[in-house]
Design goal:
about 270 residues; alpha/beta; Rossmann fold; 6-stranded mixed sheet; 9 helices; about 30% helix; binds guanosine-5'-triphosphate; binds magnesium ion; binds zinc ion
């Protein structure tokens, strides 16, 4: 139903988000007026969606190539917001059999951190039953780079929907920013999924240097074992995190991204001070 927002709400400065629960009164012409917005359980800034239960981080393993830095950022943002994350490695049909092991190892690292990881292909349908079952009864948001296949996934889940998707540029190997706005799509069985525009950046506002490691499950459990209680796990002596890293218990790229985020938080701090 097409709905307008009651002027009173606008005056109060209420800005509606996709995913908001609202009270609607139907008008004579079959349209509606939004009278009230119920309190939000949570809200994300990027993508802008309210009342989210789960983030689906969708990353293609090829075309565009797997972007682990952005994946770790999205996971971090979800952890900070207290949201469940499911990782979906898409376009698995493009992979040569001999490369599969590399990606299985990467998937295992994330599984060891407690995240569910699926391999999917919109071409063969692989992974779709698993995706469908994780969506049940939830509001889920797709997040990931442009061209990863977010819209294609939503179209597959709802045949006949036909949201616009377009091929990755052959030259730059990047997506074409096809999806321009967030839309929430209702599926069978009380499931909702939000298709969103792909993005490459996500800021880390609100995080502190001291809290960062708490959002990395593989570091969180170790932090209490470092010699110094305020250990940032960079160059301090007797650091349990660095020790786990040297024994191969923490993936080097995850630790590298931790250091990069730490630097970014430091810079932000001096910027806002
Ligand atoms: N081979 C293969 N191609 C896929 C798969 N999923 C999506 N694609 C293709 O990848 C291209 C980009 O897909 P989209 O669904 O538009 O990507 P998106 O993540 O929505 O991109 P933005 O809207 O720009 O953020 C399209 O040409 C799709 O047909 C897959 O599983 N396998
Ligand atoms: Mg899209
Ligand atoms: Zn430490």
């Amino acid at each position: 139903m097409f709905c307008r927002v009651r002027g009173r709400l606008k005056e109060k400065g209420v800005r509606l988000l996709v995913g908001d629960l609202v009270e609607v009164v139907e008008t004579a012409d079959g349209e509606g007026v939004i009278e009230n917005v119920f309190p939000r359980k949570n809200s994300l800034i990027r993508p802008p969606v309210a009342n989210v239960d789960q983030v689906i981080a969708l990353f293609s393993i090829k075309e565009p190539p797997l972007a682990l830095f952005l994946l770790d950022r999205i996971i971090l943002a979800a952890e900070v917001s207290g949201l469940e994350v499911v990782i979906c490695f898409s376009k698995i049909d493009l992979l040569e059999a001999e490369d599969l092991n590399d990606f299985s190892r990467i998937a295992d690292v994330y599984r060891a951190c407690g995240y569910r990881v699926f391999f999917t292909s919109a071409v063969t349908g692989r992974g779709f039953p698993e995706i469908k079952s994780t969506l049940q009864g939830k509001i889920c948001v797709l997040a990931g780079p442009s061209g990863a296949g977010k819209t294609t996934l939503v179209n597959k889940l709802k045949p006949g929907l036909d949201l616009l998707s377009s091929p990755v540029s052959k030259k730059s190997k990047k997506g074409r920013q096809t999806t321009r706005e967030v839309s929430l799509i209702g599926l069978n069985g009380n499931a909702f999924i939000a298709d969103t525009p792909g993005f490459q950046k996500l800021d880390l506002k609100g995080l502190t240097e001291e809290s960062l490691a708490l959002f990395f499950p593989e570091m969180q459990s170790l932090a209490g074992s470092c010699r110094f209680s305020g250990c940032l796990h960079v160059a301090e002596p007797d650091c349990a995190v660095k020790e786990a890293l040297s024994r191969g218990k923490i993936a080097p790229w995850r630790y590298g991204h931790y250091l990069a985020f730490l630097e970014e938080i430091k810079k932000q701090k001096s910027f806002y001070r």
